[in-house]
Amino acid sequence: MSIYVVVGFGAAGAATARLLVQQGHAVRVVTRSGRAPEPGIEHVALDAADAAGLTGVAADADAIIHCAAPPYDRWASDLPPLTASACAAAETTGAVLVLLGNLYGYGPVDGPMTEALPLSATGPKGRVRAAAWEQARTLHEQGRIRAAEVRASDFFGPGVVDCGHLAARVLPPLLRGRPVSTLGDPDVPHSWTYLPDVAGALAEAAGTERAWGRAWHVPTEPALSVRQMVDRLAAEAGTGPIAVRGLPAAALAVGGLFSPLLRELKEVRYQFTRPFVIDASAWEAAFEVRATPLDQQAEATVDWWRERMADTGPRP
């Protein structure tokens, strides 16, 4: 049994913590406000940007898995202190550090994204994501920490609600047979990483020495457009064909005047106006976790959303 500290308890942090418990490990979760106890997980109330505090929590840990994600409009200001704190805790305690990253750091590219691509993003969210790994990688190369980054494309599945492009803006109307709206062009190929596969990759990377020292892409099923994914989910739900409407750039610009989230999405709209495809072949050649088959992803996602909507009651 190993001791893991999971920083953050959003969708990815929660899925990872619970998977580690299932694997027989001791898990300590760090969130700003703490949470009620649950079997196998010790919840600690702490601002994870407090390096001394995080070091204390991780004093006996084998690994720190960093899944904390500030509000979307505060990435540039809040993510660097969180990364610095995690690196400091890893250096002092000797715990392996695994960062949950994404594909923003590459910026717009032509063709499938591999880990060999330079982190060439110029927008603030892309640069701050790139800088997080560059900091951890530099410390690893200096021999001061042991670190890896696990990068996912847009994730969806049970537990993904507010920030997913196939989540709260899509599944509730889909399950009611209503049209859905999406950012950009609904017909360009896009990679969707299934949340349980994110958790599996993070857990495997943290406990496998050959994963350390570089970034890896989470195994992900072949890219499908938003429309194709909506069709697949609607078929699973039995709701019939669902109309999919792309949100034009002008609408995004107007909405951004009133919504911080829509305003921030302008930087990453390219991800939905051109192919956005992940290549995880490097991971698949080295490790055991594989992408869950799409049929299973769709079934579990629809079932989870049906249960969630039943619990929360009807909405207008």
For the record, give the distance between the C-alpha atoms at the N and C termini, rounded to a whole number: 48 Å
Global shape = globular
Helix and strand content put the structural class at alpha/beta
Gyration radius (Cα, Å) is 19 Å
> Going across the major beta sheet, what is the strand order?
3-2-1-4-5-6-10
Task: Please bin the fraction of helical residues.
Answer: 25-40%
Strand content: 15-25%
pLDDT < 50 runs, ≥5 residues: none
**SSE series:** EHEEHEHEHEEHEEHEHEHHHH
Mean pLDDT: 93
Task: Output the number of helix runs.
Answer: 11
Overall strand count: 11
> Tell me about the biggest sheet?
7 strands, parallel
Secondary structure elements and pairings:
Blueprint lengths: L2 E5 L3 H12 L3 E6 L9 E5 L5 H7 L5 E4 L8 H19 L2 E7 L21 H18 L5 E6 L1 E3 L14 H5 L4 E4 L8 E3 H12 L8 E3 L8 H12 L6 E4 L1 H8 L3 H6 L15 H6 L7 H19 L4
Parallel strand pairs: 1-2, 1-4, 2-3, 4-5, 5-6, 6-10, 7-9, 8-11
